[in-house]
Amino acid sequence: MFDFILDLLFREQCLECKKVDVPVCVDCILRAEPAVEPTNMETWSAFAFHDPIIRRSIQKLKYYRGRRFVEPLAVALYDRSIEVISEKRLLWGLGPGEVLLCIPVPLSPKRQRNRGYNQAELLTRAYASEDQMSFRVIDTVLYKTRETASQVSLKDRASRLRNMDGTFEIKNTEVIIDKCCILFDDVTTTGATLEACRRALLDAGARHVFALTVAH
Q1: pLDDT tens, residue by residue, 4-31
Q2: Reduced to 3 states, what is the DSSP secondary structure of residue 140?
Q3: 45 Cβ partners below 8 Å, 6+ apart?
Q4: What is the pTM of this model?
Q5: Nearest Cα to Cα of residue 184 among 143, 130, 124, 101
């Protein structure tokens, strides 16, 4: 109700171009600085996190209940990544009728309760909806089993890897055996979280696991 009243009093505007009734324009996002080429070939990010429009959009989504930022961020990620995904399909030998499993990086139960949603899951679903014939969202396989220190508070990769050790668990293993999967998250820094998720999925029988994020 509070959000509804605010919308009545102050019309929403794009963070960049000030177009009304949108939180941010897809076209404005697509003009953001691209991420640098990754050193890890199993992770790909679309935009540089330090670009102001990317940083502000993700912060609104994660910390200010800005769910309306999901759609433009996911559409922009799809636009930037579809060529990369097409190359992966060819490399993995997937036929035109074979779907890729889209798996969001999970939050711990406590953090998801506090936030009210998992932004990675929302992004995954919005991304997959851009091409429902090619992608299928799976959120019943990968789970975060314990609360960890915020990765933001840990500055080096070794500390972040230790922080993630033994954090993720696989259920319903039969869903991913011999399947090609795409992991989704909003941001990656050192890649420790994505690597822990990727390793858990591969150990459980996934054939290939590639990670996509909005920003790095």
Answers
A1: 565 556 778 999 999 999 999 999 999 9
A2: coil
A3: 35, 38, 188, 212, 213, 214, 215, 216
A4: 0.88
A5: 124
Cβ atoms of residues 161 and 189 within 8 Å: no
Handedness of CA 61, 64, 68, 72 (dihedral sign): negative
The arrangement of strands across the sheet holding 180-187 comes to: 43-47, 208-215, 180-187, 100-104, 135-137
pLDDT in tens, 113-139: 988 999 999 999 999 999 998 999 999
Which pLDDT band, with edges at 50, 70 and 90, does 80 fall under? very high
Q: How far apart are CA 121 and CA 206, in angstroms?
A: 19
- The string of pLDDT tens digits covering residues 45-65 is 999 999 999 999 999 999 888
Choose among 209, 215, 169: nearest CA to 74.
215
Identify which of 196, 190, 192, 191 has the alpha carbon closest to the alpha carbon of residue 169.
196
For domain 33-51+81-215, give the fold. Rossmann fold (3.40.50)
For 22, the token pair is 């949108």
Residue extents of the structural domains in the chain: 33-51+81-215
Q: Spell out the residues 6+ positions from residue 200 whose beta carbon is closer than 8 angstroms to its own.
A: 142, 168, 169, 170
Pairing of strands 100-104, 180-187: parallel
